Amino acid sequence: MKVLICFVILFSIVGTQATFSNAVGKKPLEDSRELQLQDMLVLLLVPHMQEKLAEVYSDVFTVPGSPDIYPYFVEVTHTERTNGFRGFDLLITLHVRPTVGPHIPVGEDVFTYRISPAGVELKNLEHLKGPNKKDFPPNYQDLLK
């Protein structure tokens, strides 16, 4: 009987912790209006990010225009209205993992854009890390300078 009680208590504690730990930082498993709007915004910003990263990584890669950005490797980490409720001056922060070739990760970058009636303006670009040659397969190392 004591073993059964201990098992029930242990199971309830472990089960609760597992549920909580899986919920933290979990990506959505279902579509929603918010997720659709976020994905549309990412799609509209990808060309802006691609253009800037081509400049940032130009001294690293032999191929012009590298690296590539895929929307599923972009995470919206923060959004904010800078001028109050229903104001149309917004900031959006995106964490980007650019790739080359067959999705070889080449770094991490954080973009902050201002979106307003005046258009899209890059406010900040934080280059967190660049490519590591030892992470590249031998047949793709010629992409690096």
From TrEMBL:
InterPro entries: DUF3888. Keywords: Signal. It comes from the Bacteria. Residues 1-18 form the signal peptide. This is DUF3888 domain-containing protein. It comes from Paenibacillus filicis. The lineage of its organism: Bacteria, Bacillati, Bacillota, Bacilli, Bacillales.
